[in-house]
Amino acid sequence: MKKIMQFNHIISCLFFTSLLAFTTGCENDEKTEYSLTVNILPAGGGTVDLSPSNVTYPEGIEVTLSPNPSSGYEFTSWSGTDASYVNNNKIVMSKNMTVIANFSINSSSSLNSYFPIEEGVKWTYRVDFPKNCSLPYMPWFIYPEGLISTSMTHGMGSWNEGQINFEILVNEVFEIKSDSTTWNISLSSPGNSFYFYISSFNSNRLQLIISNEKADLNIIGEMDMDPPRWQIARALARLTSEDLSEKFNISVPAGDYSNCVKSIVNINGDGTHVYSGTYPIEIYLAPNVGIAKAIGKDRDGTVLYTLELTEFSN
């Protein structure tokens, strides 16, 4: 009887020893799991899809990283502690890994979105003047035909305290070049002294120049002089890729607009027609709308006028 019990004891020991060895062997066959962390720079610049999309990954598995830029952004590069392990947007898991997906503003598409100029577009503006004043309403420059310069300011207007309204209507494309497009426009008279030579203009044009991550919007007035024929250009807005980094919400009579950007146009008085000094204009541009608001200031920073969009149609 004792021999049978000893035998059963031996069998039990052998069974549990074998089971322990079996389970230990199974555990050793399982691969180590690792985590993959993907950070986005800048925040909101885009997202990254992972395939497969797991919380952790077995050692040796290949993960595909697919960058998805947000509107107005583009994917540029991988960086971070483990960026060197990324090859053709794929990474093989060999440890816990962290990478950064870098996105940047797609300047060309973003700049264009803030200047939606095409045939039939119309802007209606209201301008409020807190007091009687003489001021350079926008920078404007007089040179022979074919040469548009923004090197100095000539001319100014006299304005009475109160409010005026005017509209800009895009009629047709006048000229297309590699870096610029010019449209014929109709510019309504606001019923006040708008520009010195408004009655002498034969036609008005809007010109948008986009190059080197910068956009310039000019308004050009033509008048006949014999000789020569002259052009008067006024820089309405200037937008750079740096201006796109900070967004605003703007409320104007035409409505509420989000993701607006602010640019600054500085008018430098030439000391002859305009007092010497810098006259800053804060210009707020709404995507797919254009200029929604502008605040013109005197040399000391006091507000000379506020321009706001009251109606927009395209």
CATH level-3 fold name of the largest domain? YmcC-like fold
Q: Please bin the fraction of helical residues.
A: 10-25%
Major sheet: arrangement of strands: 11-17-16-15-14-13-9-22-21-20-19-18
State the shape. elongated
Helix and strand sequence: HEEEEEEEEHEEEEEEEEEEEEEE
**Mean of the pLDDT scores?**
77
The total number of structural domains is: 2
Low-confidence stretches: 1-5, 13-28, 137-156, 192-200
Q: Name the quaternary structure.
A: single chain
Radius of gyration: 33 Å
CATH-scheme architecture of the largest domain? Beta Barrel
How far the N terminus sits from the C terminus, by CA atoms, comes to 103 Å
Percent of sequence in beta strands: over 45%
Number of helices: 2
Largest sheet at a glance? Answer: 12 strands, antiparallel
Count every beta strand, where a strand is a DSSP E run of 2 or more residues.
22
Structural class by helix and strand composition: mainly beta
Q: What is the CATH class name of the largest domain?
A: Mainly Beta
Task: Name the descriptors.
314 residues; YmcC-like fold; twelve-stranded antiparallel beta sheet; three-stranded mixed beta sheet; 2 helices; 22 strands; 11% helix
Describe the overall structure.
- The protein has 314 residues and is mainly beta.
- The protein has 2 domains: 33-105; 110-313, YmcC-like fold, CATH 2.40.360.
- The chain is built from 2 helices and 22 strands.
- The strands form 5 sheets. Strands 11-17-16-15-14-13-9-22-21-20-19-18 form a 12-stranded antiparallel β-sheet. Strands 2-8-6 form a 3-stranded mixed β-sheet, with no helix packed on it. It has a 3-stranded antiparallel β-sheet with strand order 3-5-7, with no helix packed on it.
- It starts with a helix and ends with a strand.
